Structure prediction request, 527 residues.
Amino acid sequence: MPVLLEARGLHAGYGETHVLHGIDFAVEQGGVTALLGANGAGKTTTLRAICGMVRTSGEIRLGDERIDGRATEDIVQRGVAHVPDGRGTFVELTVEENLKLGAYIRRDRDGIARDFDRVFGYFPRLRERFRQQAGTLSGGEQQMLAIARALLLRPRLLLLDEPSFGLAPLIVQEIFAIMHRIRAEEGVSILLVEQNASLALEIAEQAYLLETGRIVISGPAAEIRRDESVRRSYLGY
Amino acid sequence: MEGVLHQVLSGIASGGIYASVALALVMIYQATHHVNFAQGEMATFSTYIALTLINFGLPYWIAFVITVVVSFVIGLLIERILMRPMMDAPVLASVGVFIGLLLIINSCTGWAFDYMIKTFPTPFPGGPVLFSGYVSGHELGATAVTLVVLIAVYLFFRHTKLGLAMRAAAFNPVSSRLVGIRVGWMLALGWGLAAAIGAIAGMMVAPIVYLDPNMMSGILLYSFAGALLGGIDNPLGAVLGGFAVGIIENLAGAYLVGTELKLTVALIIIVSVLVVKPSGLLGRTVLSRV
Prediction:
């Protein structure tokens, strides 16, 4: 399987704090890669590093281009959609406006209209709440909105930061079921950051485990899921 | 009764002017979430540019258009050069910069164009016209221009992609970058547009109050009151607020507090709005689920 995103020797941090200590990982084209780890391991920092939102050193390649050191807006132009932790919803704007912003850099009106329909197919509730102020949506609906907004970019790479965070288990199941569909139908490559390891390992092909800024385990998700000792010591189940 | 009508009509006329400056304030607020205290001085400076062009021999409307364009560029440059380093600074630091800008531009205007009061021409057929002569042709024309600018601003923000991007950049710069919006340029654009609107306001005001470097200082206060009253994030609110303040100011001046305390009325309005309903009459109260 060809590799879409590759990081080599990636360091990242905030100000004086050094968070990532030279990690290597790759996201396969068309597949789902899971990035697991406890709080504070550096998962969110990794996604932010890919998007140029934090100071980094080391190499990040998207396709055959280096994207480390580039501005966030340029990286987005190259087809990277990031659903940040906390959803990043424009709470003061309506659902409609949030979705339109997802397609901001695109110029193909027909393509955008078709993608709106596809996105409503995944998340019919967004069509119902189209003109509502986004801040009044429930947590689950805002998560759906955030994923829909990212899909409207028609990205090559989708970065998802803890989609299950703060949501009731039933809603989380609903969202992950939709994510299975998206993965099958869209052909987009996904890098999924999750604290809920079991959910993530069900959907991913490859998985990495981060611990205080270093990768301690990597490999096929199926193997990691089967390995009882790994599950008990690192993943807590 | 006739006296009241007179005051109200006068109030509408001056309200139109407050409304246009209030529009410029709202423009910058929507784009940057900052209040530009130097807005009035920038408008005065622009008006002097227009006067210089007219004295050069250019026809009024050509000078008008050139002034608007030049003001747009100046506003853009001020943002890129002065405001950009202030992006992550605390609000109070920005306020200091705005007030400093106010003083600097005021002095530069006086130094470049001298402090003698000058007349400024009006493009509208003159003379008291409507309502038994209480409203002049110019005041009517100026109000019409304000309304046209208002409609343009409203359509821009609500119905264009760029307007949406500018609002998004002000509300949530981080998420805006994640959808590919160049936040820095959105801020600069907001400043440019506000400077252009301010220039139009200045050129509409000057024929009435005569042009001197301090022309806008009182007007800025009334406009600020109007923008707050209507809702600092709402162009329509700003315009309605401007008219309301004009009427209130005149009625209060004539019947309540006398003309010496008219400016105080503006300050009272500002404080009352902030205490009772900070989002203003038409401002959007943003709901957020916790």
Observations:
- Chain A touches chain B at residues 51, 53, 71-73, 76-77, 81-82, 84, 88-93, 97, 100-102, 104-105, 133, 135-139, 149, 153 (CB under 8 Å).
- The domain at 3-79+155-235 of chain A is CATH 3.40.50.300 (Rossmann fold).
- The first helix of chain A runs from residue 43 to 50.
- The mean pLDDT of chain A is 92.
